[in-house]
Structures are given as C-alpha cells and as structure tokens.
Amino acid sequence: MMGGFSDRIKKYKRQYTQLVAAVLYNCHFAGFSSGRIFKGATKGVCVPGLNCYSCPGAVFACPLGSLQGALTRSLYKLPLYMLGTLLLFGILLGRMICGFLCPFGLLQELIFRIPFFKVKKSGITRALSCLKYLILAVFAVAIPVIYMVPGFCKYICPAGTLEAGIPLLILDEHLRTQAGWLFSWKVMVLIGIMILCLVFYRGFCRFICPLGAIYSFFNPIAFFGIRVDSKKCTGCNACISTCKMDVKKVGDHECIHCGCCRDICPEGAISYKGR
Asked: Phi and psi for 232 in degrees, rounded to 5?
C-alpha cells in the first residue's frame, strides 16, 4: 500500500509542485471571504509563474502584470527591476517555470484530462506556437508603451478573470453593478481558452501566453532544465514524437522541461541538469 502511494507521488510530483506553488502564491486565505486584495510588503515581489496580482488570495505580484505596469511608465523610467527579475527567472529556470511553477499550467493540464476530442501536435500547431510572440509584442509591450494600458491583463489574461475578476464580483455586490462589456468580454475569452485547453494540450501555454514566450528565449542557457547526453543519444526521436509540446528537439524554446521524455528514452540519454 505504501509502495502504491509512493509510486503515485513519483508519477504526479510535478503536478503536486504546481499545486504547492499555487497555494504559496495565494495563501492570503482571508481575502477569499472578505473580497479585499492583499496589499502587504510582499506584493512588491514577483513570483515566477502567471498569477494575478488582484486575486483576493495573492500575496505576491505577477511578473507579466508587473512588466506591463512598468512599461506604462516607461516614458519616464526604464523598468530595470522588472527586466532584472525576468532575466533572473529566465537564466535560472527558463520554461521550467511553465512546467513546474505556474498555477495556470496546472489548470490547463487538469482540463485536458477531461475525456473529449483531442488535437495532436502537427506542423500547424508548431506554426500557431509563434502566435504567443505576436501577443507578447502587441498586448504586453506595444499597447502598454503606446497607450499606457496593460493590454494583456485588460483584454486577454484568463488567469486574471478566473482568479480575480470572478471571485471579486461574487464577493462584492457593488462591483457586480459596475461590471460592463469588458468583464463580459474577459469571461468569453476565459471560456474560449478553457475550450482550447480541453482540445489542445496546454493550449494557452503553447499558443497565447506572453510570459512563456519571454522565458522561451532563455531555454538554451538556463541553469536548470532537461539536457541530452549526445554520447548516448541515437537520434531515434522517441522523445520528440511522444512530447505533447511543439518541440523540435529536447530543451528548445517550446520545451517546458516536464521530464516526461526521460522515461521514454530507450538509451537513458535524457536527464536534468545538475544530476
């Protein structure tokens, strides 16, 4: 019995890590009953993963939201703190953050487990994976700089709608009377993204998320993550064919370093860096 439990822990340890991260990011539990946003000193510190600042339980800031906020003031001040934070997270972990430390990543994986029609990766999905870089450039950078509006947070971010918008409106009657077309739009976007994630493995992560796009630039140089021993690798590509992400090789910009390929490799050529 203990052996079965330990096997289950080993099998789902990455998901448990994601769950722990979600709880740590949002451990201001009183906020879920009061509807008040935590404003303590830790709100000046960013967590690695996507997590809405305005969630009633959030005790830290979201790096993507903070970046957009900093860019809205970029005409007057270079956002050195946010650039440094993203640089640090990227160099240390790259997209391993997407695989282990993003609460919305966990939600996507849980949604995908629901029995439904699934679309496998292909050349089309690999092409669509480039869309997140366009969204990064337009909604997370250009709109904040030009119009001084956090474009991604305001018009797209499903994490903000799910973690902040919906709970706050449930808890605050006054806010419900103030909700207009924008909130309705965000709810429709959230529903659309949830359907996307039902059909495509980590659909938001692969095609839309600007934060994942940022971290992807650091994947080749990140200190932690997956690596391949070229001396052992026979080029069978079992790792690529079984991976659900749009990778062309292990550790490239689409790899989230989940480690699933380690169990697939017949030569044992894949391991985590530092091991």
From this structure: -90, -30
